[in-house]
Amino acid sequence: MEQRFGRLVKATSGQGLYTITDDVRAWVALQGISNGLLTLWCRHTSASLLVQANADPEVLADLEAFFLRLVPEGRGLYRHEDEALDNMPAHIRAALTQTSISIPVQNAAPMLGEFQEIYLFEHRRGAPERSLDLHLMGEA
Questions:
Q1: Quick one: which of 66, 72, 64, 54 has its CA closest to 121?
Q2: How do 129-139 and 35-42 pair as beta strands?
Q3: Minimal CA–CA distance to 45: which of 131, 137, 134, 138?
Q4: Hey, which residues does 109 pair with through a beta bridge?
Q5: Which of these, 10, 18, 70, 82, has the minimum number of CB atoms within 10 Å of its CB?
Q6: pTM, rounded to two decimals
């Protein structure tokens, strides 16, 4: 059993879903592990990770719109307003999704379905840079 660790840094330009699939595939391919389990960990409390459909961009637009309706932004809605009005809603959206995902790896590639992508789900309006840790365990 072997392990590899890595970090992926992704710049965002505000709220939305950003595909990281190609970056993850490229990293896994370079690790020398054919079969195993990949774990991705988001090092932030106002962003999250999703595996979601990639065939129709309306899916992503609907997801974003749903979360904006589910957890609205605005003055007086939350006690925590110190950083910005989008900060507390971003924490809630991240709590409702996930900050880590695990994906099986076979033949040195993540075992994603035909219409699946890995997304960083940015919940802040600003343009932060996000760090994701990658951990791959398996056999060469």
A1: 64
A2: antiparallel
A3: 131
A4: 106
A5: 82
A6: 0.94
